[in-house]
Amino acid sequence: MTDDPTLWAQRLEEAVVGLGANGDRSHDLAHAKRVLRTALALADGVEDQGEGPVDRLVLTAAAYLHDIVAIEKNDPRRSLASRLSAAKAREILGGLDFPAGRQDGVAHAIEAHSFSAGIAPRSLEARILQDADRMESLGAIGVARTFYVAGRLGSALFHDDDPLAFARPLDERAYALDHFFTKLLTLPATMTTAPGRAMAGERAELLRAFAEALAQEVSGAAAPGPRPARPSDGEAPSPLPVWPGSGTRTR
Amino acid sequence: MTDDPTLWAQRLEEAVVGLGANGDRSHDLAHAKRVLRTALALADGVEDQGEGPVDRLVLTAAAYLHDIVAIEKNDPRRSLASRLSAAKAREILGGLDFPAGRQDGVAHAIEAHSFSAGIAPRSLEARILQDADRMESLGAIGVARTFYVAGRLGSALFHDDDPLAFARPLDERAYALDHFFTKLLTLPATMTTAPGRAMAGERAELLRAFAEALAQEVSGAAAPGPRPARPSDGEAPSPLPVWPGSGTRTR
């Protein structure tokens, strides 16, 4: 059998077309393909920095199959999902005559990719898959997915009076925005490759800026344009980047 | 009966505590309160520019009650929601002994607030409520609400290969991000007050920047950091503001 990652990508894409068919479009085929693209970019970066080589065939198969068994976020069996996906991946790869000596590498990368499994990634491919999957929780894609999942689960968008939780405990089950602070902004520190850490740092900045812009809007933006100053118009310095369109107000 | 808007706000808040109880947290009490805050800010702006006076009691009641009858976005009866809400508002206000001479003003603002009703706003309060409600679809709040609603309805987040729809027709039922282009970015032009237009213009910038950052991420960001240039590294000028953290790549 061929070991060309691009040919295998086509074959695997056909094998996983049902991904996301349970209605969870935050883990559909498009997610798997984005994870693959990010993983391949990280693989380039890792090799450019002198580590490697990276087995791109293992990485390709692992990216396509890492969520093949989907378990919803609020399901108690969630922590089993990556182990179940690894087992199912072995089944699929066996049926497709995937090179036998590389199947263990794929299965390990898959079972180690999620937080909740608690399995340390032992290979470079496993580290890259983990970083690439976590990247999906950051940046604009991370913003979109956070609120999408909140819509599925029925939590509120944010705490209306204190969206950034200055004076209350964080509660990510109740407020989607809190998930930025309980989990997403901790992700850059969990990245296991240097290019992953760099990319994650950039995308975390976007999350912070988004949260700040949202808080400014929620705090009751005044109408822009010239008008007499009011006592509440005082500005406090903000440690966060200012978004385009988020106005000049601070919380 | 008092006609103090602040006292009525408390009374109305108690009357509408069930808002969003059908699980739609994009139209809950917090939404109503944000619309009120925005509406009052726009009222200040309108009066500062010499229009008015604005009846803040009418505006307060209309903001609390404008979504009192909730109909899901994909329901064919959706276009009736604002008329049904206006009728229900009359019932509630009658029961609360709300000043009789102001109930028509509240009902008109409510029935005219939504696009789908096709009723032109005849009063300043109706124009302000419409602008304030539409503001919720823009800015960071608009981003959050768009993807939240997509999660409820099960549409995809965006088209994976062509998120900004350069080479395909827009399809907002299939892709949440397309809703930015079919509807949200058209909103600033529909604003009926000058302060509403100014605020909407600022918040639309944030939507555009978000869409651009997302497209950059989706297009397969390369790992950041020093590495040899590749042929695909060429940069094209972007007409959109660059977000913090969105990197230097363009699509």
How would you describe this structure in keywords?
homodimer; 251 residues; mainly alpha; Hypothetical protein af1432; 2 domains; 9 helices; 49% helix; disordered C terminus; Metal dependent phosphohydrolase, HD region (chains A, B); HD/PDEase_dom (chains A, B); HD_domain (chains A, B)
Strand fraction of chain A equals: under 5%
The biggest beta sheet of chain A reads: none
Unreliable parts of chain A: 222-251
Number of strands of chain A: 0
Oligomer: homodimer
What percent of residues of chain A adopt helix (DSSP H or I)? 40-55%
CATH arch. level architecture of the largest domain in chain A: Orthogonal Bundle
Using the coordinates shown, work out and report the CATH topology of the largest domain in chain A. Hypothetical protein af1432
CATH class of the largest domain in chain A: Mainly Alpha
Outline of chain A: globular
Largest interface: A-B, 72 and 71 residues
What is the overall number of helices of chain A? 9
Question: How many separate domains of chain A?
Answer: 2
